[in-house]
Amino acid sequence: MPKQKQQEERWLTSREATDMLRRNSGRTDIPDSYIRSLARMGKVETKQLDGRTVLYRARDLENYKVERRNKGKGTGKKKEELAA
Fold first, then answer.
1. pTM
2. Which residue has the higher pLDDT, 61 or 2?
3. For residues 64 and 82, what is the distance between their CA atoms, to the nearest angstrom?
């Protein structure tokens, strides 16, 4: 029986991940550090390459949108949650 070919995960640098969040959210004011905050909260899976380089799983960010809070701070929700 042939083995199923697993689809390779796509991983992004912090800059690429932040750019994806900016595009999804239609905002330019999301700092590069925001992706690290999402990772610390467990909302984005990470892969450590070495002691300094961390990659972020693209699948976790594809449907993620950062919204504004009343106090000016961002909060993220998946696009499906926003439609409800």
1. 0.71
2. 61
3. 10
